[in-house]
Design a protein that fits this description.
Alpha-Beta Plaits, elongated, 9 strands, 173 residues, alpha+beta
């Protein structure tokens, strides 16, 4: 089963490698990883979508990630109220006659054309992975030249740890 795990980490060189290395050594399949700076200087947030077959292995990986020096907090947010999105850029074969037809397909998905050339156009879409997959399926008959996806990024709805909470937590570690 796919699990969405977030890790709040120190923004230091090698942290991503250590976290993904730990998962790979334990033979977890990482479907996607996204990492970015947070509102707190020196702190980054990782969102990992990982294939984990049972609760015991999930607990094991959570504990092992929490033991990492630069990891401040690890949470499995799969079954919680979350806001989750992915970004995809899709380059589709197109000529001037097909552009309006493709625009009609992408419009209900709230996707936008971000680049046009003589023989292709680039579409940007954000949303849940299922929404992106559905648009890709509809665009396939036109000839997809290239796809770039960010992977899922997510956080809990509502209350998030405040700066002081994370700062205090990092001092205790």
């Amino acid at each position: 089963m796919k699990r969405i795990i977030t890790a709040t980490v120190q923004d230091r060189s090698g942290v991503l490698n250590r976290v993904t290395g730990l998962l790979l050594r334990r033979q977890f399949n990482i479907e996607s990883v996204s990492v970015g700076k947070t509102e707190i200087e020196g702190i980054s947030k990782m969102t990992l979508v990982v294939e984990i077959e049972d609760e015991q292995r999930l607990e094991q990986v959570t504990k092992q990630l929490n033991k990492q020096i630069d990891v401040l907090k690890v949470s499995d947010i799969t079954d919680k109220a979350i806001v989750a999105r992915e970004l995809a850029l899709i380059k589709v074969a197109s000529n001037s006659q097909l552009r309006s037809e493709i625009n009609g397909i992408i419009d209900p998905f709230r996707a936008v054309i971000i680049d046009v050339s003589k023989d292709s156009l680039a579409v940007q879409i954000t949303g849940k992975p299922e929404k992106i997959d559905a648009l890709i399926d509809l665009l396939r008959p036109y000839g997809i030249k290239e796809i770039a996806r960010t992977g899922l990024t997510a956080f809990l709805r509502g209350h998030q740890p405040q700066i002081n909470e994370l700062a205090t937590y990092s001092l205790l570690k």
